[in-house]
Give the backbone structure.
Amino acid sequence: MSSLEKEDNSKEIIIEKQSNDNTEKEDNNNQQNKENEEDINKSSSEIEVNITTYPLKITFVGDSSVGKTSIIERFINDKFESELITATVMSNYNCKNLKIDPFTEVNMQIWDTAGQERFKSMIRGYLRDSNGIFIVFDLSNKRSFEDIDSWLDEINNSDVDSNTCVKMLIGNKLDTEKREIDNDTANKFAEENNMKYLDVSAKDGINIVTMFEMMGSECIKILQDLEKSGRKNSQGNLKLEQSGKKEEPKEKVKKTKKNIKKNGKCC
Ligand code: GDP
Ligand code: MG
């Protein structure tokens, strides 16, 4: 072998060695990245999050057949049955947890009228201790909108604390073509009466979750103000649960949040 060939050969060996070194380095880097990624995943799944759960009593009023039961059914079970067996013969409540932000959730105890809407004076006991009241009318039925005044009278004559109870106006059956109350009229009325307004459809599921989220946030604002000032509202609530929880597996967090008592009931 000539000395020139020898030199070439040793160059090749050096290049080959360098490329082997590089591959080894790359492998090491990959391994390191993988370990870092696992570490990040591990630590993020173990971050402690303080979740505060606020129990809320939410009641529904409004004329018969405006869709109160259908709205609740849509929110709780995501279902709409055109012929609900709900001339609602008994007092009825459902519970559902709703996350408002990563650190706050509400446990809503949602009360449906038991046909009391036919006898307005019976509604007062049912409203007692409400944190929030949805006043519902049917967008395709002007009469049900005109009746809102008398529902407000009932609320004002009940022992609901108007300073700490959130009222929200809801126009249901947005899906129907025959609309008798336009958005401006409903909004103006709501504004004059210090309420938020939203139109929804239980049938098509439009704005149903939104109305509960809006209600939840408004109620929480009031409860947090009360907490800050060290006062209690007439509902006597409070924040019942605040604890450090591992964010790992999400189901676990949910399970640990269940035992919330309000009015002696648990959902
Ligand atoms: P409630 O008496 O206020 O509880 O009213 P219901 O929930 O029993 O509903 C009365 C009627 O209105 C039923 O026939 C429902 O199917 C119908 N309904 C309820 N919500 C809607 C809706 O969003 N759109 C339409 N088109 N019909 C609805
Ligand atoms: Mg009903």
